[in-house]
Write a structure and sequence with these properties.
extended, single chain, mainly alpha, 55 residues
């Protein structure tokens, strides 16, 4: 890969292993933004049964 930068977005809800894995692969934290729990809402189809959208 000849990219100068690659952005990987993770969330505070990701398991701690995600950040450790990223850093072990050479990723560096560029910016940290805290988002209040009240801002975390499910997407519109989050509660739809899997059988409705998987063929």
């Amino acid at each position: 890969m000849d990219a100068a930068e690659v952005w990987a977005h993770t969330r505070s809800l990701d398991r701690p292993q995600v950040g450790r894995n990223d850093r072990a692969r050479g990723f560096e934290m560029f910016k940290f933004e805290a988002v209040p729990d009240s801002a975390l809402v499910p997407w519109s189809d989050a509660n739809r049964p899997r059988s409705e959208y998987v063929t």
